[in-house]
Design brief:
Mean pLDDT: 75
Radius of gyration: 29 Å
Strand content: 5-15%
Structural class: alpha+beta
Helix content: 40-55%
Order of helices and strands: HHEEEEEEEEHHHHH
Number of helices: 7
Shape: flat
Number of strands: 8
């Protein structure tokens, strides 16, 4: 009898403990799950980074696939010294929040869900909530200083000049200098991009490279037109388009191989015959002005 009574007592105590644990833990688990779901919903950053990987001289302005994302590494807005692709001037900041200015041309920006919103003009100021390091690069999670359609936006960290001083204490004159500096930096970068994408007339391989490049693009333009006609017509016209496409088959490989060869010749010559660093008068003038602005900004920051 005593054994049976002892068993009942232990059973009741175990049940009470279980009920208390459920009451305490369930709300905590639900709250934690809610936070995780919200974070996954708003910051699917590693998948977003597949878009940022396409940020080259031809920025891809398209929406992003943000499903099934995994963040590789997360850190605060105090990047380590190894992240040297981010410009981080040293200044005192009592507010503890970093901010940045767009200082690159065609700075694409996106919603936290990956929808392309457009390009931020050079000189745009952004408060930086955090910078996420992903497999494809560093992505800045920002709050616009001026009212925009989205309260939170994403852009590539390399588009920003990071500032560490307190935004609320900046004078109008210093703010103006920051904007001028960012706009000039973007202008210099735009000129450099244009120069790097344009063919060098002094390169002996330029003519052949330009010719095969045009042939390559003309070929694929014709393929696109014929494919559309084949898929939207019937009868004889449909058959003619299909026959032309069959006759063109294999030409793409030959053109691609030729393009690869001539591109390599062109680029290798450029590497062995680099342009002088100071051969662009416009860039040199802008760099001189940037140097002047940099000194003026440093002086204003030190004077408070």
């Amino acid at each position: 009898m005593k054994a049976w009574f002892s068993f009942i007592i232990r059973y009741i105590i175990t049940a009470i403990i279980g009920i208390i644990a459920v009451i305490i833990l369930v709300p905590i688990i639900q709250a934690h799950k809610s936070e995780i779901d919200q974070f996954k919903e708003s910051l699917s950053l590693d998948q977003l980074a597949t878009m940022f990987d396409s940020f080259s001289s031809n920025d891809a302005d398209e929406d992003l696939d943000v499903t099934e994302s995994t963040i590789v590494k997360s850190y605060s807005t105090t990047p380590s010294s190894s992240q040297n692709n981010i410009n981080t001037p040293s200044s005192n900041n009592s507010s503890g929040q970093n901010w940045g200015i767009i200082a690159m041309p065609k700075a694409s920006y996106y919603t936290p869900k990956g929808k392309f919103l457009g390009h931020l003009p050079p000189g745009t100021a952004l408060k930086i909530k955090k910078i996420e390091s992903t497999a494809k690069g560093n992505i800045a999670v920002c709050v616009p200083v001026k009212t925009m359609s989205e309260p939170i936006i994403l852009t590539h960290a390399k588009y920003l000049t990071i500032r560490r001083n307190d935004m609320s204490s900046i004078s109008k004159e210093l703010e103006k200098l920051y904007v001028q500096q960012a706009q000039l930096q973007a202008e210099v970068e735009a000129i450099k991009r244009q120069n790097s994408s344009s063919l060098r007339k002094d390169n002996p391989h330029a003519k052949e490279y330009a010719s095969i490049k045009k042939r390559y693009h003309d070929y694929w333009r014709e393929v696109k037109v014929l494919t559309k006609k084949r898929d939207t017509t019937t009868g004889q016209e449909h058959m003619d388009c299909a026959d032309k496409l069959r006759m063109m088959k294999g030409e793409d490989i030959r053109i691609a191989d030729s393009l690869k060869k001539h591109r390599a010749n062109y680029k290798n010559w450029n590497k062995t015959h680099p342009r002088p660093a100071n051969d662009n008068k416009e860039v040199n003038m802008l760099l001189t002005e940037l140097d002047r602005l940099g000194k003026a900004i440093s002086k204003k920051e030190k004077s408070g």
